[in-house]
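We emphasize that the prediction below concerns an isolated chain of 278 residues; any contacts that depend on oligomerization or on bound cofactors are therefore not represented. The input was used exactly as deposited, without trimming of termini.
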Amino acid sequence: MNASIEMNQQKSKKRGFGFYASIYRKIIIQDFKSKMSYRADFIISTFGMVLTNIAGFVSFMIIFKNFPSIAGWDYYHMLFLYGFSLIALTPVQCFFDNNWNLRFMVRNGDFIKYCFRPINVFFYFISEVFDVKGLGQFFFGIGTLIYAWVHIGIPVTFFVILKLILYMITASLFMIALMNFAAATCFWTQGSGSVMVIMFRFKDFAKYPASIFHGFFKYLFTFLIPIAFIAYYPSLAILEPDNIPLLTILAPVIGVFFFWLSYKFWMFGVKKYDFTGS
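Result of the prediction step, given as a token string:
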């Protein structure tokens, strides 16, 4: 059986981008049709996501009614960071949401179905679910970012927009990688659900500047659990173009490397999967 799986995975490496793009489009269409058959659930979930983000927006208003700034960041710069983080977190919400189901698939043995197709296992599993309600978060984040952008007075040029897109993608890679690492722990331990919840909760710190943390926690959120790279360091490329920190400059390279490591760790877990469930 292992030989068959290995052969299928060797075939998957020969597939090109066009093949995977075509497959992904078909899978997404079917998933979207499935979700639309439960429209009430979709509408309620989307509305709940929007309300959650509105609550975050209101919390900033309440905080800044009492404090003029936080670690040197005023209301509009904090809103920029908040909007930036919402957009950066959207890909993990929309495209990688199936990671939450991985532990259940591994536990009951259903994960084995992903191993017998001549297609990359990670792609096959992740592409099976697209969380549409995450788009509500995306558009709310854009609105918040634009609102803050206008009040800060950041110039709108082709280069600035290009840099914004680059660092948005960079920020997304860090959160995706964190969730990949957390999800893949299920190949070794049944307590992976707790690991995922903890990692996902850490995202709440992404909307705050890393400068508010000191000592061990600043080191933790920068290098061990790089939450600071989800919004703070990438956003400095836009907010402080004349004084960009070294970590901001290196962020795109680090983000790609971190995502690659998470993918390798995830696939290493697949190799350790014993196909029996538990």
